[in-house]
Design goal:
- The protein is an alpha/beta fold.
- The protein has a domain of 141 residues: Beta Polymerase, domain 2.
- It has three helices and nine strands.
- A five-stranded mixed sheet has the order 1-2-5-4-3. It has a two-stranded parallel ribbon with strand order 6-7. Strands 8-9 form a two-stranded antiparallel sheet.
- It is globular.
Length: 202
């Protein structure tokens, strides 16, 4: 039997009370609770959300990186790289979003939560691969989507659309090789064709 869902306002109050000063913000928008914490409190807060009465978020169902450098096409004031977790409590039928910003934009580092939720393993590898966010304490932090010779992190907003290198099979060397990108960047303007009787309409 599924537990009756807790009202979002009640969940917001419970989380704010349980976390106290460790929560920088606890927001409620569109019936979803979001908790913003400092990197120094991230692991302790994550464990509290998993274990505390009224929380019991046993499952991590998603973890992703975010690059805020051109957030909403404006100048962003604050740390650039963020990690967002979505947590689920099956026993209490409730969800919460947890956000934490890496304090150093040059080398974004945050603790790994794989010790709390095993499901974080591949999610953290993906955030490392695509955004370059390093998760301290992760036992196997390596690329998961790009190939071994890939340079850079393709979901960073300053990463060129064409990339840095391209890979192809060389029949003479009988192996895959990497070479600088040969694609010429260009802007394509769509051609608009006006027809007087398009589709048989007058």
């Amino acid at each position: 039997m599924t537990a009756t869902a807790v009202h979002p306002e009640t969940l917001k109050s419970t989380i704010a009370q349980v976390l106290g000063d460790r929560a920088r913000r606890v927001d409620l928008r569109l019936d979803e609770v979001t908790v913003d914490v400092a990197a120094a409190d991230y692991l302790a807060v994550a464990q509290t959300l998993r274990d505390a009465d009224g929380c019991r978020f046993e499952q991590l169902i998603d973890l992703c990186g975010v690059d805020y450098s051109t957030y909403r096409d404006q100048v962003w004031e604050g740390p650039r790289f963020c990690v967002v977790l979505h947590l689920l409590s099956i026993s209490l039928n409730q969800r919460v979003r947890l956000k934490v910003f890496a304090p150093d934009d040059g080398v974004p580092v945050l603790p790994s939560v794989t010790g709390l939720w095993n499901s974080a393993n591949w999610y953290e590898r993906e955030a490392f691969d695509l955004f370059g966010i390093v998760f301290e304490g992760h036992e196997d932090l390596r690329r998961i989507l790009t190939d071994y010779g890939f340079i850079g992190h393709p979901f960073r907003k300053d990463f060129p659309l064409s990339g840095h290198v391209e890979m192809r099979y060389d029949p003479e060397q009988r192996r895959v090789i990497y070479q600088p990108v040969t694609i010429e960047p260009r802007e394509v303007t769509p051609r608009v064709i006006h027809e007087d009787h398009y589709g048989g309409l007058q």
